[in-house]
Specification:
Layout: H1 8-40, H2 45-73, H3 75-92, H4 99-113, H5 115-127, H6 130-162, H7 164-185, H8 197-206, H9 228-257, H10 263-269, H11 271-293, H12 298-310, H13 325-353, H14 359-387, H15 391-411, H16 419-424
Helix pairs in contact: 1-3, 1-5, 1-6, 1-7, 1-9, 2-3, 2-4, 2-5, 2-14, 3-4, 3-5, 3-7, 5-6, 5-13, 5-14, 6-7, 6-11, 6-13, 9-13, 9-14, 9-15, 11-12, 11-13, 12-13, 12-15
Length: 425
C-alpha cells in the first residue's frame, strides 16, 4: 500500500486553489490587455462591454448544467474536462483581432469556466467537515483574487516581450498542465489510496445519515425552487456579484482613465486591492469557522460575518470625491476585502444547507444568480461609462451588498435540509 498523506484534504484544497488561480488568469488576461487592445483595435467601451458579456452569458447558463453533470458523473471527470476546455479557449484568443472573434472565444471560455466553482463546492462536500468548509471556500475565493493579483504584471511583461498573443497562450497552457495532475491525483475519500485512517474517520464522522447516497436523478433541478433558501441565496448572488465583476473587468481601465495612470504604473498597483481581497476571503471563512467551533450554529455564524462584510461596502462611495490614487486604492481594497469575505460565506451556505448528493446542482442554480447579475451589469456598464461617467456605477456598488443581505436574511432561515425532506417534498 502507498504511504498515507497526512491531511490529504488540504492537498486537494491546494489543487482547487491552483485551478481557481488559473481560471481567473485566463479570464483576466483580456481585462489587463483592454487598454492596449481597445487602442490597437479601435474598440469602444460599449464594444468592450459586449465582449465581456459574451463571456458572462454562457458562464451564467452553464452553472446549472455543470452542477447537474458533476452530481451525475462525478467531480473528477467533469472538473478535468472543463479545465481542459477553458484552457484551449483561452489560447484561441491569440488567433483573433475583431470584436466578433473576441466575442466568440469569450463565449467558448465562459461555457467551461463556471464548472470550476460548482466543482469546488462538491469537493467541499466530499472532502471537508462543516468547520473546515469556510476555510476551503476562503481559499477558493482567494484563488480568484490571486489570479487577479498576478495576472497584470505577468501579462504586461509577456505582452511587452513577445506581443499580446503570447499572454493568452501562456495562461491557457497552465490549465492543461493542471488538468493532467487532477486526473492523476483526485479520488473520492473512500477510494483514495493515500488517505489516512484518521482522516477517513474524521470525514465519516461529519457524514450524517441524511447524506446517505441517493439517486440525485429523482430531483429535477427546477424542483429546488420550492425552497425559500434557494431563492434567498440566488437573489443575494444576483444583487451582490456585480460588484466583483465591476472591479474585475473595469478596474484596470478605471485606474488608467480616471486616475491617470500609465499602463505600466497601473500594472504595478492594480494587484493591491486584489491582494487585500485574498485576505478577506480567508479571514471571512476562517472566522465563521471559529464561530461554528464555539457552537454558535453554522448558518447563524455565516450570517454574522456576512452582515459585518455588507456594512463595510458603502466605504466605496467615497470614491465619488475623486480621491488621490493612494486613497482610492485603499478604498477599493476595503471594498474588495469585504466582498470576498461576504462571498466566501455566501457560497459556503449552499454546502451547509443542502445535502451532499445535490450540492453541485443547487450551487449551480445559486451561482447562476451571480452570472445573471454580472451579465446585466456588464452590458450596462460600458454604455453608462460612454454616455455619462463612472459615478452612477460607483453609487450602485456602494449599496448592493446591504440590499442583498436583507434578501438573504429574510429568506434563508433554519438549518440544514435533509435528504428525507427533499424526498417528502
Amino acid at each position: 500500500m502507498k504511504k498515507p498523506i497526512p491531511n490529504l484534504r488540504w492537498w486537494i484544497a491546494g489543487l482547487v486553489f491552483l485551478s481557481t488561480v488559473i481560471n481567473y488568469m485566463d479570464r483576466q488576461t483580456l481585462s489587463v490587455l483592454a487598454p492596449r487592445l481597445t487602442k490597437e483595435l479601435h474598440l469602444t467601451n460599449t464594444e468592450y462591454g459586449w465582449i465581456s458579456q459574451a463571456f458572462l452569458i454562457p458562464y451564467t447558463a452553464m452553472y446549472i448544467v455543470a452542477g447537474i453533470l458533476i452530481d451525475r458523473y462525478g467531480t473528477k471527470l467533469i472538473y478535468g474536462i472543463a479545465a481542459a476546455w477553458w484552457s484551449f479557449a483561452a489560447m484561441l484568443h491569440a488567433a483573433t483581432t475583431s470584436v466578433l472573434g473576441f466575442s466568440a472565444v469569450r463565449f467558448l471560455l465562459g461555457t467551461a469556466e463556471s464548472a470550476n466553482f460548482v466543482a469546488a463546492q462538491k469537493v467541499a462536500a466530499e472532502w471537508f467537515p462543516p468547520k473546515d468548509r469556510g476555510t476551503l471556500n476562503g481559499l477558493v475565493q482567494a484563488g480568484t483574487v490571486t489570479g487577479a493579483v498576478i495576472t497584470p504584471p505577468v501579462v504586461i511583461w509577456l505582452a511587452d516581450a513577445w506581443g499580446w498573443r503570447s499572454a493568452f497562450l501562456f495562461t491557457g497552457a497552465l490549465g492543461l498542465v493542471w488538468a493532467i495532475v487532477w486526473f492523476w491525483f483526485y479520488q473520492l475519500p473512500k477510494d483514495h489510496p493515500r488517505i489516512s485512517d484518521e482522516e477517513r474517520a474524521l470525514l465519516d464522522e461529519g457524514e450524517t445519515a441524511t447524506l446517505a447516497p441517493r439517486a440525485v436523478a429523482t430531483h429535477s433541478w427546477f424542483s429546488f425552487f420550492r425552497y425559500p433558501q434557494t431563492w434567498g441565496l440566488l437573489l443575494a448572488r444576483i444583487i451582490s456579484d456585480p460588484v466583483w465583476w465591476f472591479y474585475l473587468f473595469w478596474l484596470p481601465k478605471y485606474l488608467t482613465e480616471q486616475q491617470g495612470l500609465s499602463e505600466q504604473r497601473m500594472s504595478y498597483v492594480v494587484w493591491i486591492p486584489y491582494l487585500i481581497s485574498d485576505v478577506g476571503s480567508i479571514a471571512g471563512g476562517w472566522y465563521s469557522g471559529r464561530l461554528i467551533a464555539r457552537k454558535f450554529g453554522t448558518v447563524v455564524s455565516r450570517k454574522w460575518v456576512m452582515l459585518a462584510s455588507a456594512m463595510m461596502m458603502p466605504f466605496g462611495l467615497l470614491l465619488l470625491i475623486k480621491p488621490p490614487t493612494t486613497l482610492a486604492l485603499v478604498l477599493i481594497s476595503v471594498v474588495l476585502g469585504a466582498h470576498s469575505s461576504w462571498k466566501t460565506n455566501l457560497v459556503t451556505l449552499t454546502v451547509d444547507i443542502f445535502p451532499r448528493n445535490v450540492v453541485a446542482t443547487v450551487h449551480g442554480i445559486v451561482a447562476t444568480g451571480g452570472g445573471i447579475g454580472g451579465a446585466l451589469f456588464t452590458s450596462m456598464a460600458g454604455i453608462v461609462i460612454d454616455k455619462f461617467s463612472y459615478t452612477p456605477l460607483l453609487v450602485l456598488m456602494g449599496v448592493l451588498h446591504p440590499l442583498a443581505y436583507l434578501c438573504m436574511r429574510w429568506l434563508v432561515n433554519g438549518d440544514a435540509i435533509s435528504m428525507e425532506r427533499l424526498h417528502v417534498q
